[in-house]
Amino acid sequence: xxxxWTIPVLAIVMVFTLAGCKYPSWTEAGCRQEAIQETVELxxxxxxxxxxxxxxxxxxxxxxxxxxxxxxxxxIVDGKTPSGTILGGFTAKGWSQLKLRKxxxxxxxxxxxxxxxxxxxxxxxxxxxxxxxxxEVTIEFAE
Length: 143
Fold this sequence. Notes:
Elements: H1 2-18, H2 28-46, H3 52-55, E1 59-62, E2 71-78, H4 83-92, E3 96-97, E4 108-117, E5 120-128, E6 134-141
Antiparallel strand pairs: 1-2, 2-6, 3-4, 4-5, 5-6
């Protein structure tokens, strides 16, 4: 009897894994609720360390329409704003520089920092976008 159920169970686990879901019991509604909580926590952890003009433009995003990707924050900034200006509040508080490959971001990674916040690893990354003269700040929990 065990052998008969092995293949269907394995197939279900593989479908969820290939679809990007973290858990077989994943639901889009549950994902969105978790993503909202994550973005609230990320704002608490980082908004005071960002320049006020950037903190005011942070937008919450999630990957719940395509899988259990959780929530993150983004802001579009002027490409002329130095990454040191964007990340200065973090480095002043002892956040560590991230070692990024240039191709880890949408177009090109410029700079990033990381630190622990309430037992979770947070990453803040500045990356170039496909639009000329703009960069994107992305804030997320790292796995």
